[in-house]
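Model it.
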Amino acid sequence: MFTIGMWLLGSLAIVVMGAVVVGLPYFFIRMIIKQMEYGKTLKVWGLKLKKRHTTQAEFEGLMQDMRDVKWAPNYPEYWGYCKNIFYATLHSHEIMLEQKRQLYAEFERLKVHGLPYPRERKEVR
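Modeled.
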């Protein structure tokens, strides 16, 4: 009645169910921790650049941190931090146009909408 094939199938089902029971919570906990890390990165830069412009010296660090962020948390608070970062860089006289466009591309990758594409400045005399 009870064959080796049925025993193997039952054992396999138990192993798969165990992997799901252990793996799913791990996956969700890991995603929550990652979201907190990305949110912290955006918050630190957003608050740092809230009342001043980005300098050339800190731009590389900013770009590296933005590349490390895989997604922007889906909360208005973090969208605001992203916009603070972008506008601090956009209005900076130290940052080159190509670098501003690189940052724009990073925010496009993060799905941050509503940012103007950086254009050449008109000379004001």
